[in-house]
Design goal:
InterPro entries: CREG_beta-barrel, Haem_oxidase_HugZ-like_sf, Split_barrel_FMN-bd. With 249 residues, the protein is of the alpha+beta class. It has helices at residues 13-24, 65-72, 110-120, 167-172, 174-184, 188-195, 234-246; strands at residues 28-34, 41-47, 49-50, 56-61, 75-80, 93-103, 133-146, 152-156, 205-210, 213-218, 221-226.
Length: 249
Amino acid sequence: MKDQPSPLRETDDEARRLARVLLRSARYAAIAVLDPDTGFPFASRVLLATDIDGAPVILVSKLSAHTKALTKDPRASLLTGEPGKGDPLAYGRLTTQCIAEPVERGHRFHERIRARFLDRHPKAKLYIDFPDFLFFRLKPEQASLNGGFGRAYRLDGRDLIIQSSANEAIAAKAAETVRDLVERHPDVADSLAERLNAPKPAAWRICGIDPAGFEIISGDFLLRHEFETLAADSDHICSNISKIAYSIP
């Protein structure tokens, strides 16, 4: 018998960019873990944010079934990607296999992750500091991208992580960077939304920056934009954002 052709395409930069956007633009995800009592997969829904290097972050109750499962076995799978009108299988989606790392109070990443999570999910302020809640940082190991019919790719976990020596420095000044940018350009988020053809429900705001790009949010709408090249520092991020918002098309 002849060998069947592989359904996978060669992974290129376009596929990597689509995968990163599908992961970093998701406000929530389906998460699958392994039930410690039965060994069966257990699926649930979680709110999603990202750390400064693009790694997904979840906030969970210690009482939930998926938290108990991750404590026993840190392997997890995330499904991200929004369907639209018509056939939901015609839209891009990403399955990311991860290793969950707990980030509790006192952890060196905790305050940074907490701030980034609240930027994306401000209503979580009602319970984010409850003693029975904690964060997990989900380290991508590998991923499967389906960009629509006939567009399947396999990615390495490193394809989804921002490989930059500037991560920590940019994270330390992120809030200040956004505040200074908005003070200079009060309409910057709405200008970005218009230039990026975002929906127009209400006022937009910048809810996250990193060396690879930024997010803007308005109500339930969130839009991720990736820079052409990694930003070297906070000034570079501001310059990139200003050019996108105000340069002549």
